[in-house]
Amino acid sequence: MRLAAVCFSALGLTLLAVPAAGATQQPSQPLYAVAYGSGADLMRIVAGGRAQIVRVIPPLHVAEVRPNVAGFAQSMHSLAGVRYVERVVMRHVASEPALFPTSSSGAPYEWQYAASHEDAVPSAVLHAAGAVKIAVIDTGADLSAPDIAAKSPWTYNLSTGGADVRDVNGHGTFVSSLAAGSVENNDGVAGFGGDAQLLVIKAVRDDGSLTDLDEAGGIMYAVDHGARVINLSVGGPATSATEQRAVAYAAQHNVLIVAAVGNEYTMGNPVEYPAALLQPVGSRGQGGVGLSVGASTSNGSRAFFSNVGTQLSLVAPGMDVFGAISSLSSAEEYPRSTLAGSAAGFYGYSSGTSFASPEVGGAAALVMAANPFLRARDVAMILKQTASGRGSWNPEMGGGVLDAAAAVARAQGPNGLVVHGVRSGKTFRFQWFSAGTPKYRVSLRVDQGATRVLLDGTTATSVTVKVRKRHRYSFSVDALDANGAVTATTPFSYRA
What we know:
alpha/beta; Immunoglobulin-like; seven-stranded parallel beta sheet
């Protein structure tokens, strides 16, 4: 699996080769993914020493094994309890960043923030995003980078099962800073996710390799540990049943996956996965279970390397974007740029759909913060429909360039106070939310009866009432400021 960053020589914009230090070392024995029915089935698969278990993804009932005997795959097809056997999809890590200083032009270092209208998102929504967790499945992260350190991120290393996610590659640090770098620490860069929580999952192994099982394991861990958004700035030309099942698991748990569409437009424009699992080929921006993201330039056009096709959801700034650089990464691969006013950390410019994807992931967290009642698919639809195409789609740009402020405004509705209701048996749960609102007043009217106040000056965001058939329940919520004045009102009716 490739990391979807692209690198250009400062002398001629020529594509660079993958550095030898980051090249994948192929294992001496083939690796297989085996889907099993039960623990006993797995034990039969490896019985007699015919295979060695490398790792297991329990929720998917999939094990990565290295055979010790010839004809292993063929023999598995007749063994009870085996659902499928596949060769593990091995892809090369190809992180190729570059530095294009643009500060001399007078534009902000982090030009991408204004270009996607992140700077127009209300501060209350940025703060409300603290309730949303973004998972970055990548090469790890430099936890000493100021904007990442300020988030006190959760960390997990898939290979070791521990918390050490040191990023000697640099790709994951750059991606994490764009997705969820702190907007409040007065240093470095501002991430697109506001105050969103950050979960850093190191999926790339020490030899630089990344497989579909590593990706699937990262997805499962992220979902099971509370992530609402998962960023996958990785890709490759093949998919697998294991990858598909992990993506489906996320969708079933209302988790939005955002992935890079790929950087190979000049090399045949292949369809890349997992992006094409999220926005399927032929969908033309409609439906799907996630977002497939391309890269745009500072003038709003498609970056020349960004893949195109019917699997593209939308684009976001990905050409010469500014982000945090790992102190452990190669200075040749990730050149450092002086950032005026920065007290600590390393920063630079880089290009790739890898870095467009986390911007969209961060914006998705803001949409969820603005309206916590939205499903993951609703969030994806809003981001596509509010991009610069305003509902139109084309294979070069998808729905257009990300517009974070427009997406947040669409999610909030006309007055920023959103309501939601769910019936369960004989009770009805009424919920409401407005970012930055300290208190609420909630009223109820049944049929044509008198209106009564259920809650006044409350900080609660839900109430449960008993309901009877053939009656209409009319709720009204007032958002109150610190002085108790009404700032917004939203009605809601339900007929039992």
